[in-house]
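$ ./design --mode recover --in tokens.txt
reading tokens...
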């Protein structure tokens, strides 16, 4: 598959890396020649130093021969125009990154008028995951994912204390026909292996046949359990803070936003109906105390600086706030924040890249997917004839730490796999992958008969 990416920023590079994992032919267009030279030395891609808004650039690369164009420059209007031009010139599918709230209010009109197939919004994507955690706590009455004869349930290990202190191998005796596929610990989602030990305060994700899962669900889950979320403080009034405040207003929570930029405060106060907007520095402890941070049910740190988000999240957690969520773009900072006991650390790059990859792959490869705490994706794929994973015992596959095969539908049968299990053609395979391991996931799922034209 041929894909052209316009914009060589962080998102563009993340998407290119993931696409290369699936052996797609990737071209990157950007106006920064020095940046493109650095990219050429690290990634197996074709680079073009040009302005993609000029139709002559798109014609020069024969855009009609491309399967996808992905416009992810730093400017919404530029992305919309480039995607529209590419579509008019014959590109099969076009994707544009759009972040401005004004555009999002008329997004369907923009898509229809400009001929854009798919629009991604990193701020809205991360906001949805934060909202789901705060407003629903991921506690659904029948588990969070069901497919065919397989279901997955999420619960606090305190609801099933027998599991505390056990390794993954030992859990199979207590949870027959089931498998612990993920553990959330201190806000970090972990894919557990055989020697992994369950600890107090862990949140477990267990998959299995519907019958056993329903019995487990009856023991550990409170039907219709929802949070009593009432007061939320958002530190940072950027796009993420704005989108989240809008959603929480509708939910009925009392929301406070602390924003350092005075003009931005004016914008927020005129576009949000019931949110209290405060002009100030969120790192000012006196201000936080004056605004009763200790009385908050949840704190979300969503400034434009990872370092501030890390510091603010730590401050909120030390003051005993029940739910603290941090927006973090650097992978290394996610590890630090998780170690501090923050409830969720979300990376908008990972979430947006996954969104784009799911659209590019289409329904033939990924039948359905579900994000877990914004950090991992539970997906159901169909095993096609030439995948490298076929007819090899799972224990012999070089699986990344962040990937696990959870269940297999084979005809009318359901298989909860072990190390000796082999995946066969036409199996419907349920797997879990950390979003940070999306490149490795693509490598696993690639078609061995397809090779990049650059290899």
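writing sequence...
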């Amino acid at each position: 598959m041929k894909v052209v990416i316009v914009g060589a920023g962080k998102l563009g590079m993340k998407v290119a890396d993931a696409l290369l994992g699936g052996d797609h032919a990737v071209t990157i267009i950007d106006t920064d020649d020095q940046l493109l030279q650095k990219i050429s030395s690290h990634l197996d891609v074709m680079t073009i130093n040009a302005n993609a808004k000029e139709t002559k650039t798109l014609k020069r690369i024969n855009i009609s021969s491309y399967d996808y164009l992905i416009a992810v420059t730093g400017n919404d209007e530029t992305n919309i125009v480039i995607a529209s031009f590419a579509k008019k010139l014959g590109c099969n599918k076009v994707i544009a990154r759009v972040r401005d709230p004004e555009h999002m209010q008329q997004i369907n009109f923009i898509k229809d008028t400009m001929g854009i197939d798919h629009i991604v919004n990193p701020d809205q994507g991360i906001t949805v995951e934060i909202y789901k955690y705060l407003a629903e706590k991921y506690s659904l009455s029948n588990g969070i994912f069901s497919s065919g004869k397989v279901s997955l349930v999420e619960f606090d290990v305190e609801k099933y204390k027998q599991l505390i202190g056990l390794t993954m191998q030992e859990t199979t005796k207590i949870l027959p026909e089931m498998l612990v596929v993920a553990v959330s610990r201190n806000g970090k989602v972990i894919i557990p292996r055989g020697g992994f030990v369950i600890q107090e305060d862990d949140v477990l994700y267990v998959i299995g046949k519907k019958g056993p899962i329903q019995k487990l669900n009856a023991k550990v889950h409170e039907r219709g359990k929802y949070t009593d979320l009432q007061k939320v403080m958002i530190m940072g009034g950027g796009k993420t803070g704005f989108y989240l405040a809008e959603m929480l207003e509708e939910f009925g929570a009392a929301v406070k936003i602390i924003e350092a930029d005075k003009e931005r405060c004016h914008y927020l106060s005129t576009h949000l109906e019931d949110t209290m907007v405060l002009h100030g520095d969120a790192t000012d402890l006196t201000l936080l105390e004056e605004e009763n941070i200790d009385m908050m049910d949840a704190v979300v740190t969503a400034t434009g600086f990872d370092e501030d988000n890390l510091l603010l999240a730590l401050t909120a957690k030390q003051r005993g706030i029940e739910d603290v969520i941090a927006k973090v773009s650097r992978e290394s900072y996610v590890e630090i924040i998780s170690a501090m006991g923050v409830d969720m650390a979300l990376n908008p790059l990972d979430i947006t890249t996954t969104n784009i990859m799911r659209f590019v792959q289409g329904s033939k490869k990924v039948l359905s997917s579900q994000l877990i705490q914004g950090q991992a994706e539970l997906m159901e794929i169909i095993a096609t004839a030439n995948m490298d994973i076929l007819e090899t015992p799972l224990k012999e596959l070089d699986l990344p730490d962040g990937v696990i095969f959870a269940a297999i539908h084979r005809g009318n049968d359901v298989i909860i796999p072990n190390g000796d299990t082999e995946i066969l053609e036409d199996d419907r395979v349920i797997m879990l992958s950390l979003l940070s391991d999306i490149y490795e996931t693509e490598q696993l799922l690639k078609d061995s008969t397809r090779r990049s034209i650059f290899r």
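exit 0
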